[in-house]
Amino acid sequence: MFRKLAAEFGTPLYIYDAAIIRERFADLETFDVVRYAQKACSNLAILDLLRHRGAMIDAVGADEIRRALTAGYTAEKREDGVYPIVYTADIFDRDALDLCIEKNIHVNCGSIDMIDQLGARCAPGREITLRINPGFGHGHSRKTNTGGDLSKHGIWYDQLHQAMERALRYDMRIVGLHMHIGSGTDLEHLSQVAEAMVESARQVGTTLETISCGGGLPIPYRDNEERIDLLQYRALWRDAQAVLAREFRHPVRLEIEPGRYLVAESGSLVTEIRAVKTQGGNLFYLVDAGFNNLARPIMYGAYHPITILVADSPDQGAEPTAAVDAVVGGPLCESGDIFTQEEEGFVVRRRLPRAQVGDLLVIGKTGAYGSVMASNYNSKPLAAEILLDGGEVRPIRRRQTFEQMIANEIF
Fold first, then answer.
1. Is the bond preceding 297 in cis, omega lying within 30 degrees of 0?
2. Element of type H or E holding 253
3. Do 310 and 318 touch, CB atoms closer than 8 A?
4. What is the pLDDT of residue 251?
């Protein structure tokens, strides 16, 4: 099917499998609220799919709020006490503050300045959530570490009382606490987060209705990587939830905020090999997708599985049998435009089937932080996107045209 879709829609092409997204969402339904971190993949069709499954939404900017509203989410607090949309950030830009006031969007404040800026404009009795930096962090890359004193995220844990005093000044109720220390965190670190959450929640007291364990759930990018033990993960937070419910003498909701976990495995970036060349002892496959389409390798040295589909293959599963060690690179005028690299930019070779110009190369597990991080670098257009859903092929983003790319430029 991939060859057929590439012939119809061109390459580079993002393809998502809706069934995988639904399956990953079902994995998390033991949590009280699953709040999708839409920054992972914010296409309106993906937001709509998850809304119909029961997911709430996390927005990190004004236009992400607008995306959620466009996809059918509402701002009003539901009868069960859950806010469909939460704005999570460390600052308000002026547009975001205006929109949160206008639409009455619930805010997860990552700085005390946010409390001041919201409090100066909102009506008394406004409910807010606080994002707390517990003083430590851990992620799959130092660039995805969102806790500790080198992270910009959250209100520092020993400034919680200051944040509470500021909220009291504006007659705002703190109804939620949020902690997220990094993407790809392990269970040992998460147990420390759960303990830190309980301590912070005790300081806030019985106004709390919700605790959020954030996101960062890893997925296995390599064949030898195991899936996270969701039963153990849930048990860590169930214990913290139970302690607080017992001490507060009322139920406390537990939210989880996955992004990558829900969508990463659903996505494939299909690209065409346009040159095969040897540079000294290295064989290069050069494709028509670059880091303008998928930035994770150049940003984090991220690994993605890669497969080859030969030009005369009747289906996507057939591959040539001969294998070679190859470097996979893109078309951009940048030495870093390499998909097979490790952190700090070390270029590595990947064992791949022997290929030639015209074959398709598929970069797997690109549903998260793929298309959303795309750019027009080298004046490359944004790729088309396709959603496969129950045998139906649904185009969900047209390929950007040159005219659309330059539409806002003036000379």
1. no
2. strand 253-256
3. yes
4. 97
* Tokens describing residue 179: 């902690």
Nearest CA-CA partner of 139 in 190, 74, 71, 198: 190
Question: How far from 312 is each of 308, 357, 380, CA to CA, in Å?
Answer: 12, 12, 28
Burial of 268 (0-12, 13-18, 19+ CB in 10 A): buried
Bridge partners (DSSP) of residue 269 are 14, 363
Token pair 């049998």 is found at 321
Distance of alpha carbon 219 from alpha carbon 225, whole angstroms: 8
User: Cα(161)–Cα(159) distance, rounded to whole angstroms?
Assistant: 6
Asked whether the beta carbons of 263 and 40 are under 8 A apart, the reply is yes
Please give the pLDDT value at position 181. 73
Give the Cα separation of 236 and 198 in Å (integer).
Answer: 12
308: which strand partners?
361
Question: pTM of the full predicted structure?
Answer: 0.94
Measure the CA dihedral 156/158/160/162, to 10°.
Answer: -110
Please, what is the average pLDDT of the chain?
A: 93
**Which secondary structure element, helix H or strand E, spans residue 308, and what is its range?**
strand 306-309
> 3-class DSSP state for residue 113?
helix
Q: Using alpha carbons only, give the angle 221, 223, 226 rounded to the nearest 5 degrees.
A: 75
Cβ–Cβ < 8 Å for 70, 62: no
Host H or E run for residue 3:
helix 2-9
147 phi/psi in degrees, rounded to 5: -135, 165
* Total count of residues recorded for the chain: 411
Say whether pLDDT at 320 is over 60: no
Collect all residues with Cβ–Cβ distance below 8 Å to 165 and sequence separation of at least 6: none
Angle between helix 187-204 and helix 160-169 axes, rounded to 10 deg? 40
Helices and strands counted in the chain (H then E): 12, 20
**Residue 312 confidence class, pLDDT cut points 50, 70, 90:** low
Question: Which residues are annotated as catalytic?
Answer: 333
In contact, 265 and 227? CB cutoff 8 Å: no
3-state secondary structure of 232: helix
Using DSSP, state whether 1 is helix, strand or coil: coil
